[in-house]
Design brief:
With 286 residues, this protein is of the alpha+beta class. The chain has 2 domains: 91 residues, Macroglobulin (MG2) domain (Immunoglobulin-like), CATH 2.60.40.1930; 175 residues, Glucose Permease (Domain IIA). It contains 3 helices and 23 strands. The longest helix has 18 residues. 31% of the residues are buried. The N terminus is likely disordered. Bound molecules: zinc ion. The site of zinc ion has 5 residues, from loops.
Amino acid sequence: MKLLVLLSLLTCSLFSFNINISSSTISNGRTALIEFDKELHVEYDKLVVGKKKYKIFDNPKDTKKAYVLLPVSYYETPKNTKKVSLIYKENNIQKTKSLFFKIEDGQYKKETIKVQNSKVKLNKKDKQRASKEYAQAMKIYGTTTKESYITKPFIVPLSSKITSDFGKARVYNDTLKGYHSGTDFRAKVGTPLVSCNDGVVVLAQDRFYSGGSVIVDHGQGIYSCYYHMSKFDVKQGDSVKRGDLLGLSGDTGRVTGPHLHFSFRVGGEQVDPLQLIELLNKNLLK
Ligand SMILES: [Zn+2]
């Protein structure tokens, strides 16, 4: 009996699994990927960084593996070291496995933009409309579809020159108004835009700031967004495949000229879309 107890204790303490992080330093506004092989008899609960909790998902291409996306807020302070704790249960005993990563400065540039004053200083009606649309969008991003719709690498919605990178600090008519939350592609009005991967259209409507807007849910908390469009070829609830036509680019909403603003939300956080695509394509979807 004693031997049995000793033996089971020994197997318990010997048990361990590897947890890998895509990089030990991550810039603010960018995303890290944590992956591990799932073990039988282990229940994976969540990942915790400070007060924030992150969901653990099955790898969309291999259910023996699990992954967590760690989107780092643009406003995180660089040079901070963060502790990541994986909370799991093994033989009904709660355990924690931890690793560390450091936040680097994304070194984003500053950008000054002149726009119509009516789009900067809003009247009451526009203010109400904009805040209603913001709340609606945040509700979407705060919803997580457990399954993943994606199995293939991501593509970009059009092949064209990038005119403004993610992360530029934005000064509208001399007032600092946050940062550029996506990547802008040159696109004259009427350029076809395709879905960057499989998913479900969760929003296709005209909004105050972003104009004609499409949001695609790719599952597991990943959303892609397409703004300033002039025409929709999809509606809310439509399933789309990678490369399917979403509509046409335009110059609707708060813009200085026609272009596509392409952005992503992961776990509710706005992150660099092109870095996220590269990260997922190279690791999760390879
Ligand atoms: Zn933009």
